[in-house]
Design goal:
Layout: E1 6-10, E2 22-28, E3 31-38, H1 46-50, H2 59-62, H3 71-85, H4 91-118, H5 123-144, E4 153-154, E5 157-158, H6 166-187, H7 192-198, H8 207-212, H9 216-220, H10 228-231, H11 252-276, E6 297-305, E7 308-316, E8 322-328, H12 331-343, H13 351-358, H14 362-366
Antiparallel strand pairs: 1-2, 2-3, 4-5, 6-7, 7-8
């Protein structure tokens, strides 16, 4: 640090920081010359805590690894245990899980859509996003009893079947979201200031995608058509018709375009799921989960979260607790390795939109 530079901490209280994290930067004038991500302000130590808990008691814990999108963690951990225990879940359970995952994805993207506008001073879409997201949280509350932490996906399937008339209520919410989206588009996508600020911002060299292991909308905004739902299908995704969404601008604007199109895709997938939802059982027979022991083994399962490829490495030793659990989330790379490199040379006013465009989830780094 030279005499011409100023050290500044952005966050964890800054509204442009996507969660309880902090970015330390050095400024020469209003230009960033160096950046360092700091974590440790929120939930920590999930992986070690899980080694001390019986399998079923870890499900309320894994939700906290990404608070706005908890269901990906539940599904990954449940699928990992099912593989190790040799449990085949009912077909209907796979479809219900997929419905939950897409509803979770949709509410996360709606909140993010308003959030990217908020990072540039547009407060109205922020309030819209929180409000419209709440209609989906109402559905989760009806289905699981919880608005944020659901603890609904469990080994063998799901905790309970869909309530009577639930599918119709989901479709009504989808119709409502579709009616609202043109208003978001007008105030965000068609906004000259938003376009001027995001086009060309945080340009990612394409070679960084493989070099750093970038995934999800960040990689797809660079033209890489990788989506775990399509390339390594799981649950009911093999039976759904969709294409991988990509853009080629490699900048914050392209990331916005990808996620905006992902909203439309999730709505379409939810409608397909409800149309094709099979009847039958929703939970496979299980031993007493309070005394459940899983044979020794190891597995790695992965899925597509809103942020990219999300994986659980699970090791069992024949006891009633995991021997080792390792969570592989994209936020670690996007929020540390990539962010620290992207911020150098940027204006201090662009820190918030760059961070939001990468869509990190801090507990996923601290796990």
């Amino acid at each position: 640090m030279s005499k011409e530079e100023v050290r500044l901490f952005i966050g964890p209280q800054h509204p442009g920081v996507t969660g309880n994290m902090s970015v330390e930067v050095l400024l020469r004038g209003d230009t960033i010359t160096w950046a360092r991500t700091h974590i440790g302000y929120l939930h920590r130590g999930f992986e070690k805590l899980m080694e001390r808990k019986i399998f079923i008691k870890s499900f309320p814990l894994v939700c906290r690894i990404c608070v706005p999108e908890p269901d990906t963690n539940e599904e990954n951990f449940a699928r990992g245990l099912e593989e190790l225990a040799g449990i085949e879940i009912p077909e209907r359970a796979k479809w219900i899980r997929t419905l939950v995952l897409e509803l979770s994805r949709l509410q996360m993207f709606i909140m993010w859509y308003g959030g990217i506008a908020g990072s540039m001073g547009l407060s109205t879409p922020v309030q819209w996003g929180i409000g419209d997201r709440d209609y989906i949280l109402d559905l989760f509350e009806e289905l699981t009893g919880g608005r944020i932490y659901h603890i609904y996906i469990m080994p063998g399937g799901v905790r309970k079947d869909l309530p009577e008339g639930f599918e119709e209520r989901v479709l009504k919410v989808m119709d409502m979201v579709e009616r609202r989206l043109p208003e978001y588009d007008e105030i965000i996508m068609e906004n000259a200031v938003v376009q001027k600020r995001l086009k060309g911002l945080a340009k990612i060299p394409k070679e960084w995608v493989d070099e750093m292991g970038l995934t999800g909308p960040v990689a797809r905004a660079c033209g890489f058509p990788y989506d775990v739902r399509k390339d390594h299908p799981y649950e009911a995704y093999p039976h759904l018709d969709f294409d991988v969404i990509t853009e080629d601008g490699c900048d914050a604007w392209s990331m916005l375009l990808v996620r905006r199109r992902e909203i439309d895709l999730s709505i379409d997938l939810i409608r397909q799921i409800i149309e094709k939802m099979p009847r039958g059982e929703f939970l496979a027979p299980l031993p007493n989960v309070l005394y459940w022991k899983i044979p020794p083994g190891e597995t790695y399962v992965k899925s597509e979260s809103t942020r990219g490829e999300y994986g659980f490495y699970v090791v069992t030793d024949g006891s009633d607790k995991p021997r080792r659990v390792h969570v592989n989330g994209p936020s670690f790379v996007h929020g540390i390795t990539l962010l620290e490199r992207l911020l150098v040379g940027q204006n201090i006013a662009d820190v918030a939109p760059i961070m939001v465009s990468l869509q990190t989830c801090p507990p996923e780094m601290e796990r």
